[in-house]
């Protein structure tokens, strides 16, 4: 059994979400960054995950702010 023969990309993928959450240990973060430096596939995947998170944050915050605007508008204009 060669259990040291772990797929580095699979390992990197496992660390991707905790990496984006900034919850990895220093050693894990260094390992992930080292792999991202070497591996273009994982680097693209990382950029995709990162932009997806940015997009989700915007998608979540926009309906909230427009709902808030509607509330404020309703308060300003009295309904007779
Ligand atoms: Zn990789």
Characterize the structure shown.
- With 80 residues, the protein is mostly helical.
- 79% of the residues lie in helices and 0% in strands.
- It contains 3 helices and no strands.
- It has helices spanning 8-20, 26-38, 40-76.
- The longest helix is centred in the C-terminal third of the chain and has 37 residues, at 40-76.
- The mean pLDDT is 86.
Topology:
Blueprint lengths: L7 H13 L5 H13 L1 H37 L4
Helix pairs in contact: 1-2, 1-3, 2-3
Zinc ion binds next to α1 and α3.
Give structural attributes.
80 residues; 3 helices; binds zinc ion
Order of helices and strands: HHH
Helical stretch tally: 3
What portion of residues belong to β-strands?
A: under 5%
Give the overall silhouette: rod-shaped
Measured on Cα atoms, how large is the radius of gyration? 21 Å
How much helicity do the residues have? over 70%
Distance between the termini: 78 Å
Total beta strands: 0
**Uncertain parts:** none
At a glance:
Helices cover 79% and strands 0% of the residues. It has 80 residues and is mostly helical. It is rod-shaped and about 75 Å long.
């Amino acid at each position: 059994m060669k259990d040291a023969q772990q797929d580095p990309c699979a390992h990197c993928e496992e660390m991707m979400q905790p990496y984006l959450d900034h919850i990895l240990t220093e050693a894990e973060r260094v390992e992930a960054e080292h792999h991202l430096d070497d591996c273009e596939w994982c680097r693209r995947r990382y950029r995709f995950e990162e932009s997806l998170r940015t997009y989700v944050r915007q998608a979540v915050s926009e309906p909230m702010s427009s709902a808030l605007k509607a509330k404020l508008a309703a308060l300003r204009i009295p309904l007779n």
